[in-house]
Each structure stands twice: as structure tokens, then as C-alpha cells.
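Researcher: We plan to redesign the surface later, but first we want a full-length starting point. C-alpha cells attached.
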């Protein structure tokens, strides 16, 4: 497919760092006790991804499910108290990550969208993807292209882009990797990044350690490499995948590797939506249902 890229002409946010915090909480040092807690919600959206980060009254949504789960996603976000999304992150433009993104953009006030670096994967676009871009354009929502080191402040937390994908012919390896650091927890995500994304992060020498980690690519065997995990060393690992999905996610070896480093594993296919936050000083995961 020739012609100009479909994302050209989108409004671009000039600043490299944007504060979405309320004035009362901005500039608070790490560990301050203003009571602005962090909650991670790994929404059960079947064989797809949608993660909501809440810090104080602010929200970041990372990916937006598939189109089959659009109503559930909107409902879950509303139930979590979302009206405004301070930052919407598209890790990569596959349908199981952006299928309901146009609906999210229509339903909620989205202040800014973080997009992957499409120059690294000059691939044909899809109608789903174009719908998202059209919605962003129609509403004139500022966008920014991921770049390692880019940061976004949400209350007392900061999202930092650690990796912006690798040159690839596969959208998975275009996935944005990032960490959310807040006084009460740290969280690492790599989208559907596979060994190329993980190696790129290892090569860059960035600090990968995180208390909470969403296993890359729905727990596939192509992600969560042993060396990579030895740097992340998560206390809690989340796998977002569908019941009896056709890909066989999560891979049994991936589960073994996560067990071997001592991570507590939670799965949306077995336990529904998973909520992680700190209670009485302890990091806790609460599940919508008990694993069968
Ligand atoms: Zn995916």
C-alpha cells in the first residue's frame, strides 16, 4: 500500500512530558503520604488486553480490548469511575488491543494518546485502526509517538516509555514497553512484545524491575524470556487471555518460568478482572472470581 501514512496529519503534542496531576498532588516526593493510592485493573476482556491504571483521581488506559468486548469495556471503565482518561496508550495496532478504542474515544474525554512508532513497521493498515485514527482526528486529540525516556505524570505516579518497539514486519514487535512508578507500586508492561522487544530492553540497560508485570503477548512462549524475567523479578504476574483460546495462551513453559522466579500468577481467563493495589502495606491482587 502506497501513499502517505494514515497517521500523518494527526495533532502532535509538543511537550515531551505532560503533567496530568491535580495541583494538590503535583511535585509530591516519592513515598509521600497524601493518600493518593494506585490501583491497577486488568480487565477481563477475553483474548485481548485492557489495563486501567488509577492514581488518585487520574486514569491511564493501556489498550482497549477487541470489538467483541466493547460494551463490557465501556461498562467496566464507567464502573471504575472513569469520566476522563488522562492518557490512552496504544501498545500496537492489533485488533485485540484497539478493537474497542474508537468507542472509548467516543464515550470518554481522552486528553492525550500515546502511539507506537509506526515508522518501525511500515505495514498495511486495517479498517479498525483507521477508525481509531479518524476518531482521534475528529476530536483533535493530541497524540505523541513513543520514544524511550518519554514520561507522563499521573498524580504521584509516572509512566515512562522504556522501549518503543524494534524494526519489524510484525506489529507485535512494535509494542510500546513501559513502567509505571508510584509510591505504592511499580508496574511493567510490554504489550505483545516478543524476544526482539525484550532483547532491546535488555540491551538498553534500563531498569526493568517491577513488582507487577503483565506477561508479554498474553503469556505466549515467544515472550517472558528467562533472562528478561530475571531482570523484572515481579512479585505478581498477570496474564490477560481468553478461556480456551485458540493460541494456547498462556504457554505452560511461561507459567513455569514465572513460577520459578517466585511470581504469584493471576489469569483473566480463570479469574476474571484482576485488581492490584496495596492494602495495609501489602501488595494484593483481588480477583473477580476464584480459579476453577
Ligand atoms: Zn494481543
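Model: Full-length starting sequence:
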Amino acid at each position: 500500500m502506497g501513499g502517505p501514512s494514515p497517521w500523518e496529519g494527526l495533532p502532535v503534542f509538543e511537550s515531551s512530558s505532560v503533567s496530568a496531576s491535580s495541583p494538590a498532588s503535583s511535585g509530591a516526593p516519592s513515598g509521600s503520604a497524601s493518600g493518593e493510592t494506585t490501583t491497577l485493573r486488568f480487565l477481563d476482556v477475553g483474548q485481548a488486553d485492557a489495563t486501567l491504571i488509577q492514581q488518585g483521581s487520574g486514569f491511564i488506559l493501556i489498550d482497549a480490548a477487541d470489538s467483541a468486548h466493547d460494551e463490557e469495556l465501556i461498562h467496566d471503565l464507567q464502573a471504575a469511575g472513569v469520566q476522563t482518561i488522562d492518557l490512552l496508550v496504544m501498545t500496537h495496532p492489533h485488533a485485540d488491543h484497539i478493537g474497542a478504542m474508537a468507542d472509548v474515544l467516543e464515550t470518554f474525554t481522552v486528553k492525550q494518546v500515546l502511539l507506537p512508532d509506526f515508522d518501525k513497521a511500515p505495514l498495511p493498515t486495517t479498517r479498525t485502526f483507521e477508525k481509531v485514527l479518524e476518531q482521534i482526528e475528529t476530536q483533535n486529540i493530541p497524540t505523541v509517538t513513543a520514544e524511550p525516556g518519554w514520561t507522563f505524570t499521573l498524580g504521584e505516579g509516572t509512566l515512562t516509555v522504556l522501549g518503543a518497539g524494534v524494526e519489524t514486519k510484525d506489529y507485535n514487535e512494535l509494542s510500546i514497553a513501559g513502567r509505571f512508578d508510584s509510591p505504592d507500586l511499580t508496574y511493567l508492561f510490554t504489550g505483545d512484545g516478543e524476544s526482539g522487544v525484550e532483547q532491546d530492553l535488555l540491551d538498553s540497560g534500563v531498569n526493568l524491575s517491577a513488582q507487577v508485570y503483565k506477561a508479554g503477548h498474553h503469556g505466549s512462549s515467544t515472550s517472558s524470556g528467562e533472562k528478561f524475567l530475571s531482570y523484572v523479578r515481579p512479585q505478581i504476574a498477570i496474564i490477560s487471555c481468553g478461556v480456551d483460546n485458540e493460541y494456547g495462551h498462556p504457554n505452560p513453559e511461561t507459567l513455569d518460568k514465572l513460577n520459578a522466579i517466585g511470581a504469584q500468577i493471576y489469569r483473566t481467563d480463570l479469574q476474571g478482572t484482576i485488581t492490584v493495589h496495596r492494602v495495609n502495606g501489602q501488595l494484593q491482587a483481588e480477583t473477580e472470581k476464584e480459579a476453577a
